[in-house]
Amino acid sequence: QVQLVESGGGLVQAGGSLRLTCAASGIGFSLAQKGWYRQAPGKRRERVATITRDGSRSYSDFVKGRFTISIDLAKKMMYLQMNGLEPEDAALYYCNVVDPLNHTPYWGRGTRVAVSS
After folding, report:
1. How many DSSP H helices and E strands does the chain contain?
2. From CA 38, how far away is CA 9, in angstroms rounded?
3. Which end of the chain is more exposed for a tag (fewer CB within 10 A), N or C?
4. Cα–Cα distance measured from residue 67 to residue 108, given in angstroms and rounded to the nearest whole number
């Protein structure tokens, strides 16, 4: 059974930092494409950052230079370091992993990030 558990969200002042963590189990983590997505109230879920099985990282334009995605394959953990947070970054942040065998996407329940101005 695939399980993804996010943590690390919270309330921070504009300009502050947070580090999100995703703990994965039940899936071939090293071979999967992985990423972070977010959804603000009333908006569609959007991609924040992804990392492929060969380690290539990709970021959406609105987070470039501020956020960094990283992984620890041994621990099956994925991280999102978020610096320079802005009120527009407030959202529910989700961990996503795509099963390398059948391409099924899996999602965690999300961790909420709030940014005060």
Report:
1. 0, 11
2. 12
3. N
4. 19
32 DSSP assignment: S
Would you state the pLDDT for residue 66? 97
Tokens 């972070």, located at residue: 36
Task: Please list the ranges in the chain whose pLDDT falls under 70.
Answer: none
Q: Provide the pLDDT for residue 18.
A: 98
Token digits of residue 52: 């492929």
DSSP state of 117: -
Task: Give Cβ neighbours of residue 96 (< 8 Å, ≥ 6 apart).
Answer: 4, 34, 35, 36, 37, 50, 105, 106, 107, 108
Asked whether the CA dihedral 18, 80, 57, 105 is positive or negative, the reply is negative
Q: Within its chain, how far is the Cα of 98 from the centroid?
A: 13
What per-residue confidence (pLDDT) applies to 47? Answer: 98
Burial 29-68 (b: 16+ CB within 10 A, else e): beebbbbbbbeeeeeeeeebbbbeeeeeeebeeebeeebe
